[in-house]
């Protein structure tokens, strides 16, 4: 018989990493508050009859923020579910007192609903590595519940935890009756009054927790550097620069490999096909269009991997503190940094992460900034244009490449635009003036767990390809058909697409673009990354026998002025070309008003800025 087990814990307790270990599923795990926003479920890899439910991390069952309220309500609803056989409360042993405050509240709630509880004392490996111990048996006796020492990172103790969950599934009534009838549990140890709970947690941690302040001292020493008024700011700038520089330097060999594989496959497959429409479709649409997009996927993998390293290490919370003071100038808060950086991967998780911004006003302003963050969908476009117009040379012995510098610059430009928008709106709008103070927990520093990081980066890249690939394939087929007929690709300008493109060409002519780029821009409003696939298809049809050369070379040979290339970079850094982002914004705000306003205003802003960029660059270039 299938039964359910609830996993619950405070943020940074390692709960979601434990869920991944027990189920084999890949869920985003990050070392800062608020990353988990949905309930995840999955079958245990050792017991298919056991379904685990990963509930969002909260600090207290007495909810303060709107996000916590939703999570707590879901937890209480789960306790009423007859299929729930037990609850696993994950506690960080390196911060035992804080974890026990929450655990005592969970014990009280489970006693009221007759649900068995297991305390999973996580990160026991950290204590072992520092020669520290804790009295697990004494803590279990005091709480009257099992306490299991585990390490979600290394897998230590997971067998014992799984055995306990199985025993609760097989005979939950015996344990629940013991807990429900235990006066000590209901009266002395488990109390509902906050002040009593805090005092009890302090006493329990002092009696049974690890002795010494080695871990606290280590964290303090690191914080003295990373949060220093000078060194902290300098280290933040260097870390962010290395993040974007790595997008080119680390990904370049993989990109070259992908391009070589695609070229080899095209040279093998295309000659085997009969001459005509089928051969041209495979060559122009599949290898020319979709293949041109796939070349840039390794950069998305590297970006996700590096951001994950920063998350798991505990650095992002420090970065939020560093950014709080400057972000206040623009009407935001340090907590806005987390959803904004999440949006570098994708705007959708960034919008969800904005729930952690307690102030309704600053959350609303964060929504304004998120679409302007340089998301991974823009990355293929940026990479294509930078590779076409910026030389692959460097300075300081190649340590700083011009292409990497250009990538950093365009990313900073998008971020700056977002900040300027929020600054302008925050000073001119009287909407949502309610505000709350900035409070953020500092998680401990930890070495990242490489296996989940690599798996998350792989799955994120795979998801991006499968999600974008469907749209790109459909658009590519339509573009190829319109560009190939009625003259079988003999003259792209005389095709159906050529006639359509020349109708819209005047709209894009002011910043030096012909009709082919105009068509690619229009299709990119379905999804930004479609721009690369559309251009690949168009140049593939036009290139004839030379359609196997890279899209970068096609652009360089097309005579596109350098001002137009920079104008395209500016346009794509500002325009809101993502239907999914608009839909999620509508769901989060409950109205189409904000998404519509952002789409229209950012499109006008992008067009104007692109035209101005073209004029300035062309005047400089002569």
Automatic annotation (TrEMBL):
Answer whether the UniProt record assigns the keyword Protease to this protein.
no
**Record Pfam families:** FeoB_C (PF07664), FeoB_N (PF02421), Gate (PF07670)
Q: Name the UniProt key words of this record, in alphabetical order.
A: Membrane, Transmembrane, Transmembrane helix
Q: Does the keyword Membrane apply?
A: yes
A GO term, aspect molecular function: GTP binding
List the PROSITE patterns.
G_FEOB (PS51711)
A cellular component term (GO) from this record?
A: plasma membrane
Domain spans labelled FeoB-type G: 2-171
> What sections of the protein cross the membrane?
225-248, 260-278, 285-309, 329-352, 364-390, 402-425, 464-485, 562-585, 597-621
Name under which the protein is recorded: Ferrous iron transport protein B
């Amino acid at each position: 018989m299938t039964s359910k087990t609830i996993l619950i814990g405070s943020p940074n307790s390692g709960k979601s990493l434990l869920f991944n270990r027990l189920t084999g599923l890949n869920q985003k795990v990050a070392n800062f508050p608020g990353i988990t926003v949905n309930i995840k479920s999955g079958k245990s890899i050792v017991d298919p009859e056991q379904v685990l439910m990963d509930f969002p991390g909260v600090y207290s069952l007495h909810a303060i923020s709107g996000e916590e309220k939703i999570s707590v309500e879901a937890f209480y609803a789960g306790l009423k579910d007859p299929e729930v056989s037990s609850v696993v409360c994950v506690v960080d042993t390196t911060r035992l007192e804080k974890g026990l405050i929450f655990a005592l509240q969970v014990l009280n709630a489970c006693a009221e609903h007759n649900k068995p509880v297991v305390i999973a004392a996580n990160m026991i490996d950290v204590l072992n590595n520092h020669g520290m111990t804790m009295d697990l048996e004494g803590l279990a006796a005091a709480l009257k519940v099992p306490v299991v020492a585990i390490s979600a990172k290394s897998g230590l103790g997971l067998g014992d935890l799984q055995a306990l969950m199985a025993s609760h599934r097989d005979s939950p009534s015996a344990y629940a009756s013991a807990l429900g009838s235990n006066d000590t549990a209901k009266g002395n140890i488990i109390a509902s009054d906050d002040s009593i709970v805090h005092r009890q947690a302090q006493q329990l941690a002092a009696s049974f927790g690890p002795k010494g302040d080695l871990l606290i001292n280590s964290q303090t020493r690191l914080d003295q550097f990373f949060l220093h008024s000078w060194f902290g700011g300098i280290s933040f700038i260097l870390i962010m620069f290395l993040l974007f520089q790595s997008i080119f330097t680390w990904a370049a060999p993989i990109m070259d490999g992908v391009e070589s594989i695609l070229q080899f496959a095209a040279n093998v497959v295309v000659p085997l096909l009969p001459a005509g429409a089928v051969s041209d479709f495979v060559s122009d649409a599949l290898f020319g269009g979709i293949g041109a997009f796939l070349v840039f996927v390794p950069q998305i993998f590297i970006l996700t991997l590096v951001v994950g390293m920063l998350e798991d290490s505990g650095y992002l919370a420090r970065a939020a503190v560093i950014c709080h003071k400057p972000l206040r100038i623009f009407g935001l808060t340090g907590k806005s940094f987390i959803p904004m950086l999440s949006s570098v991967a994708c705007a959708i998780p960034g919008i969800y992460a904005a729930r952690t911004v307690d102030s309704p006003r600053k959350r609303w302003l964060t929504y304004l900034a998120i679409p302007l963050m340089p998301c991974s969908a823009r990355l293929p476009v940026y990479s294509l244009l930078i590779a076409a117009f910026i030389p692959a040379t460097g300075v300081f012995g190649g340590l700083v490449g011009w292409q990497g510098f250009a990538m950093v610059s365009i990313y900073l430009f998008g971020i700056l635009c977002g900040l300027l928008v929020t600054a302008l709106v925050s000073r001119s709008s009287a909407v949502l003036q309610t505000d709350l103070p900035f409070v953020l927990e500092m998680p401990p520093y930890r070495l990242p767990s490489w296996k989940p990081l690599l798996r998350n980066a792989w799955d994120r890249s795979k998801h991006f390809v499968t999600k974008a690939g469907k749209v790109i394939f459909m658009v590519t087929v339509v573009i190829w058909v319109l560009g190939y007929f009625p003259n079988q690709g003999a003259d792209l300008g005389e095709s159906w697409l050529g006639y359509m493109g020349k109708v819209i060409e005047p709209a894009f002519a002011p910043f030096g673009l012909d009709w082919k780029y105009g068509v690619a821009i229009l299709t990119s409003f379905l999804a930004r990354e479609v721009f690369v696939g559309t251009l690949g298809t168009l140049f593939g049809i036009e290139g004839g026998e030379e359609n196997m050369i890279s899209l970068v070379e096609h652009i360089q040979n097309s005579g596109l002025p350098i001002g137009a290339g920079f104008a395209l970079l500016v346009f794509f850094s500002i325009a809101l070309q993502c239907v999914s982002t608009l839909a999620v914004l509508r769901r989060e705000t409950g109205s189409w008003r904000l998404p519509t306003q952002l789409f229209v205003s950012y499109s006008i802003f992008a067009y104007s800025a692109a035209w101005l960029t073209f004029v300035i660059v062309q005047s400089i270039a002569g």
